[in-house]
Amino acid sequence: MKVICITSSTSAGLEQILPWIYYHKVIGVTNFFLFVEGKAASPLVSKVLESIPNVKLIHRTKELEEQQAKSRAWNETWLSIFFYKPCNHELFVKQSLNMEMAIVMAQEAHMEWIVHLDTDELIYPAGTSEYSLRQLLTDIPEDIDTVVFPNYESSVERDDIQEPFSEVSMFKKNFDHLTKETYFANYKESSRGNPNYFLTYSNGKSAARVQKHLRPHGAHRWHNYMKTPKELKLDEAAVLHYSYTKFSDLTSRRDRCRCKPTKEVVERCFMLDFDRAAFIIASTVSQEEMLNWYREHVVWTDKDLNMKLMKTGILTRIYAPMVIIQGLKEVGVFSSLISSVQKSLSKDTFSSSNEAINNSSNAIDAMSGVSSRKNGKKQPRMTFSNVLEATNISRDKDTNLWAMPPLPAPTMEKIDSYI
């Protein structure tokens, strides 16, 4: 049996983290190493998360920062271009340092595979007969070091989404899972006036075998200090990225960054064009104007266009996560967990500081209206792309490669570099 762990850096609340954890438990993930801040680090939320077997929380303390300040990564060039820059770059470095620590934890816990995911992402193990990440990784050839899951991006159809995992079923497929002809023939309509095909990144996420000299290669990939890893990109399985699924994501992302909302400044703060545009909008216009902008650029309200892109294969419906999470809710997994922690707290502690748990509990209880409709398509056979070497450069230069940042999807002007 494959022993699989996920590591994540998160500041989310229970309404997001609990479904995320238990969904991944259902598909075969055994352990979680969560680096928590914000809501996720609050005493009561932490107590709930720590009550789940094989979930380890690492709080951002002074001791942690002092330990990470001694990391080998600060003396390596692969991460250096992201140092001492604000917002997205700072988060990228923090994620990489957290991933580095998670590797050690994974080794100590005798994990076989490690995955880095954000808590707005779900693994979609398509191509397996049992809808199982464990089965998928068991079938990976032994000489493969890292596996890439191309990402699909959520395409919300309403502006009032509250629980993305339970309300969103439409996704835009990755370039890697489309023919070149289909992708570029539909590029303009698929982009809908936005800077790129996807709102945010397009370069997927990665799982790695836990082995000696493993290191992060930024938030999207893993690498190795001593060799060029063999990488395999999956033809059917994917990561579902729930990006800007809630209108409030505009302001919450804005509030995490102190940059001035000018074009020149946001170039340094954010790596992707849509994030830059969204930050400026959220910082400079009224709530009504922001909502209109969100509806125009994020919400898919044109049903005719949606149907057309569905027929071409650009858009697809994926119901499995909704069904799994709704099933977990209906049998009381989330509510009973929160209730048991509430009961274990002293009355004084509970009465003075129970707002965080109650808010998250209410949000979880509000999950409703999830379609039980299942995808009627026959489960596809698992296939693999050709095994690719991550790079072709010599081993002595291997440790100096730049970490892979979040990358946009290929554009019409840059097609030659993707063929």
UniProtKB/TrEMBL annotation:
<dbReference type="InterPro" id="IPR044224">
    <property type="entry name" value="KOBITO1-like"/>
</dbReference>
<dbReference type="Pfam" id="PF01697">
    <property type="entry name" value="Glyco_transf_92"/>
</dbReference>
<dbReference type="GO" id="GO:0030244">
    <property type="term" value="P:cellulose biosynthetic process"/>
</dbReference>
<dbReference type="InterPro" id="IPR008166">
    <property type="entry name" value="Glyco_transf_92"/>
</dbReference>
<keyword id="KW-0328">Glycosyltransferase</keyword>
<keyword id="KW-0808">Transferase</keyword>
<dbReference type="GO" id="GO:0016020">
    <property type="term" value="C:membrane"/>
</dbReference>
<dbReference type="GO" id="GO:0009737">
    <property type="term" value="P:response to abscisic acid"/>
</dbReference>
<dbReference type="GO" id="GO:0016757">
    <property type="term" value="F:glycosyltransferase activity"/>
</dbReference>
<comment type="similarity">
    <text>Belongs to the glycosyltransferase 92 family.</text>
</comment>
<keyword id="KW-0472">Membrane</keyword>
<protein>
    <recommendedName>
        <fullName>Glycosyltransferase family 92 protein</fullName>
        <ecNumber>2.4.1.-</ecNumber>
    </recommendedName>
</protein>
